[in-house]
């Protein structure tokens, strides 16, 4: 029986991945920066790398991603890749982001290149923007004002459900058929935010609109929410890439790897409609 270390196990993708692997009979080790509260948890501080060696003890495979809020992802993840190399893991799946490979000096691309050169069997997955952002990061505007506030113009994005990302990661961790390959993960169709708002409206039974806002207004909102300035500025940059049309492309990677069509935005909206539905009178 294999033991798989999941870094980011409490996040949107990592939690789903842990559930899937456990259901398939794998031993899952969930990394946490806090004091462990469950038998399958292990403490690992990505900022100091305290607990790194212990977290990897007896591990066969690993799923790695950088926590949100940081722009120096190579400094956080690089030592994990080195630990995986030193222990000769059977497989590593690294999650970065669509477009990360556009610039070889970008922090996430530096980690990808380090993993490629490590000699460890690996895959890199680069998801597009998550559907789940609509009931997490963009929720406050929808809940309080019935509006999605973003500086993305009328560009389209091939949003992907985090459940599909986890399903893809699970399939790659459990196979060597695609070793050495990298995959951009997207949904099956591209939507602009007016179209997304219309779908959310139908699911929630209330009117939800989209409003294009200046990047400066978005930056002020992110800083007001407590995000560190470097990370807030990074988000503005990548939202600018969305507005420029770089998020519209679709791929068939989810279908090729999992054998299942990606979850449609309509299904996502139905599954999570309680987040946006008007409160009962």
Topology:
Layout lengths: L2 E4 L5 H12 L3 E6 L8 E3 L8 H5 L4 E4 L8 H14 L4 E5 L11 H10 L5 E6 L11 H7 L1 E4 L5 E2 L4 H12 L8 E4 L5 E2 H12 L4 E4 L2 H10 L4 H15 L9 H6 L6 H7 L10
Description of the molecule:
The protein has eleven helices and eleven strands. With about 280 residues, the protein is an alpha/beta fold. Strand 4, helix 3 (about 75-85) and strand 5 form a beta-alpha-beta unit. It starts with a strand and ends in a 10-residue tail after the last helix. The protein folds into two domains: about 5-125, Rossmann fold (3-Layer(aba) Sandwich), CATH 3.40.50.720; about 130-160 and about 185-245 and about 265-280, UDP-galactose 4-epimerase, domain 1, CATH 3.90.25.10. The mean pLDDT is about 95. The strands form three sheets. The chain has a seven-stranded parallel sheet, sandwiched between helices. It has a two-stranded parallel sheet with strand order 7-11. A two-stranded antiparallel ribbon has the order 8-10.
- The CATH homologous superfamily of the largest domain is termed NAD(P)-binding Rossmann-like Domain
- What do we call the CATH topology of the largest domain? Rossmann fold
Shape: globular
| Structural Rg | 19 Å
């Amino acid at each position: 029986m294999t033991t798989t270390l999941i870094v980011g196990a409490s996040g949107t993708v990592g939690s789903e991945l842990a559930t899937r692997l456990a259901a398939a009979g794998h031993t899952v080790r969930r990394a946490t920066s806090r004091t462990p509260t469950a038998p399958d948890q292990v403490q690992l501080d990505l900022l100091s790398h305290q607990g790194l060696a212990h977290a990897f003890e007896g591990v066969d495979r690993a799923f790695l991603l950088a926590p949100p809020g940081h722009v120096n992802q190579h400094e956080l993840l690089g030592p994990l890749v080195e630990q995986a190399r030193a222990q000769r893991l059977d497989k590593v799946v690294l999650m970065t982001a669509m477009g990360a490979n556009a610039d070889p000096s970008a922090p996430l691309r530096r980690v990808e290149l380090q993993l490629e050169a490590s000699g460890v069997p690996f895959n890199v997955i680069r998801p597009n923007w998550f559907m789940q952002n609509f009931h997490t990061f963009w929720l406050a505007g929808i809940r309080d004002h019935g509006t999605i506030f973003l500086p993305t113009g009328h560009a389209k994005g091939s949003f992907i459900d985090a459940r599909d990302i986890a399903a893809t990661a699970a399939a790659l961790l459990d196979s060597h058929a695609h070793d050495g390959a990298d995959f951009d993960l997207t949904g099956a169709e591209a939507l602009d935010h007016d179209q997304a708002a219309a779908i959310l409206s139908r699911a929630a039974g209330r009117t939800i609109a989209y409003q294009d806002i200046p990047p400066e207004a978005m930056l002020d909102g992110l800083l007001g929410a407590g995000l560190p300035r470097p990370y807030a500025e990074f988000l503005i940059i990548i939202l600018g890439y969305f507005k420029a049309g770089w998020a519209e492309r679709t791929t068939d990677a989810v279908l090729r790897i999992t054998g299942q069509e990606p979850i449609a935005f309509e299904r996502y909206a139905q599954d999570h409609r309680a987040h946006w539905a008007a409160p009962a009178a």
